Amino acid sequence: MTSNTDNKDRIATPSDTPQLQAFREVVESRRSVRRFTETPIPDDVLADCLRLAMLAPNSSNLQPWAFYVIDSAESRQQAVKNCMNQNAAKTSARLIAVIARTDIWHDHAQQILREYPDKPVPKKVKDYYTKVVTMDFLRGPANVISAAKWGATQVVRRVKGPIKSPYYTFEDTKNWATNNTALAAQNLMLALRAHGFDSCPMGGFDEPAMKRLLGLNDDQHIVMMIGAGERERADNGVYNTQFRFDQDQFVHYV
Fold it and tell me: What domain range is 42 assigned to?
């Protein structure tokens, strides 16, 4: 693995470890690759990458994601078309739809209690998933519960101080699911790089058409499409030189 950044001259510090050096190499060599070779990604490699993806941090361990690996020739042909025939989709060895789900929080909360590794399940854990999580997401008919939650939250802020805002609307829940799923997508791309493959996250696709192809409902949202494979090095697999704005422009100490 070779880095495509200008970090080769970084001065080693006492805190540098083999793990840190390996991590840096994975992150710094990851690029959005637009053209791939015909080298396949073995099933066991992809399975491990997906396993690592699902180790991403996520809110309350509710894991509101799904991954659709589009392998059949007919589905792949249509999926590539839905990705506007981008080279990153057309030449990829594997094409993956990363899905955020807003319909699964309740089922997953119950599954956590069934599969919780420490038995008996502590009471505070039961209370959290049966009461706190439920109240966080429930909206009720015509959002009547959301209105009550909003009023209660304002009272708590005035009387007791800071409190996390619950999810009042469908868009709140969608943002929650999308944020968590994006973390898993990044894990997936870094895992592919660590295995010696590359990827390209794509936001340019026809979402309604892709949802019809995959049989998704209104509570399943495509966060991104990911094309993955071995980087084409002789034919402009990476289109541009990587650069970022200065770190001081974005990092603030308060």
Answer: 34-103+178-239
